[in-house]
Specification:
Layout: H1 7-17, H2 21-28, H3 32-43, E1 51-55, H4 61-69, E2 74-79, H5 82-94, E3 101-104, E4 117-123, H6 132-142, E5 143-154, H7 160-179, H8 184-188, H9 190-195, H10 200-210, E6 214-220, E7 225-231
Parallel strand pairs: 1-2, 1-4, 2-3, 4-5
Antiparallel strand pairs: 5-7, 6-7
This protein binds S-adenosylmethionine (SAM).
Length: 232
């Protein structure tokens, strides 16, 4: 797929992979996604009384990490895939996080007032929304002035050897593993989505235009991964 599919197709794709999503993440990143998610939560600067959103929360890993830090405020996981949200809710229940709120909604139209949120995380979501500037505008709108969003995602590294290794790994190991569960096409979507995703510099330029007061992109793992940290 070399074009961004419509939102309904993306939503159906994520519903389809819900049963295997956590298992494949753990296997295929050798557990490293947990470290990247911890870094992201720290960069979003939550405190104990924050109103914190985890956008495109999926199965809720980042949401649970936020809830570990936000004891007196509110933590809300937002996603448009009911099946991934069901996995997230069950995981939170098992781990005793009963105060997390789960919201089925489109992150391009957040049902929160302007200037009402203290901290936002987003993991592997920005690459999957149909309109990246609209998503960043919505994040800017709901954040309180001076507060932060940290956005984690895959990137295409600048180093050609690393980029080729990333492509080989995604097209062979990841797609082969996913095909055992009948999800070959859904995981074949990852590499083209990384190719069309704006790089760190471009993300910073978009965020600046929207009006964030600070915008920094931190590459991880030689640029295979990155965190965009935005301050309103
Ligand atoms: C790759 S998953 C990431 C899940 C989780 N954040 C993680 O780090 O494991 C991307 C998520 O984005 C969600 N998503 C994509 N576009 C969305 C939108 N416009 N509104 C809400 N959720 C969206 C999908 O349903 C899916 O759960």
């Amino acid at each position: 797929m070399n074009f961004t599919p419509p939102a309904s197709q993306i939503q159906q794709m994520f519903d389809r992979i819900a049963p295997v999503y956590d298992l494949l993440n753990d296997w295929l990143s050798l557990g490293l996604h947990k470290v990247w998610k911890q870094i992201t939560v720290k960069m979003s600067s939550p405190d104990t009384a924050s109103v914190a959103l985890d956008l495109c929360c999926g199965t809720g890993d980042l949401t649970l990490l936020l809830a570990k830090r936000v004891k007196k405020g509110r933590v809300i996981g937002v996603d448009f895939s009911p099946r991934l949200l069901a996995v997230a809710k069950e995981k939170a229940r098992r781990k005793g996080y009963d105060k997390i709120e789960w919201l089925e909604a489109d992150v391009l139209q957040l049902p929160f007032p302007d200037n009402s949120v203290d901290c936002i995380t987003m993991g592997y979501g920005l690459r999957n929304v149909v309109d990246i500037p609209a998503c960043l505008r919505e994040i800017w709108r709901v954040l309180k002035p001076g507060k932060k969003a940290a956005i984690l995602d895959f990137h295409q590294p600048e180093n050609n050897w690393l980029a080729a290794t990333q492509q080989w790994y995604l097209e062979n190991i990841v797609v082969t593993a996913a095909s055992f569960f009948g999800n070959r096409q859904d995981y074949a979507y990852i590499h083209p989505s990384i190719q069309r995703f704006p790089n760190g510099k471009q993300q910073v330029a978009i965020a600046k235009q929207i009006g964030f007061s600070q915008q920094t992109h931190y590459p991880l793992m030689g640029g295979i991964m990155g965190v965009l940290v935005l301050t309103k």
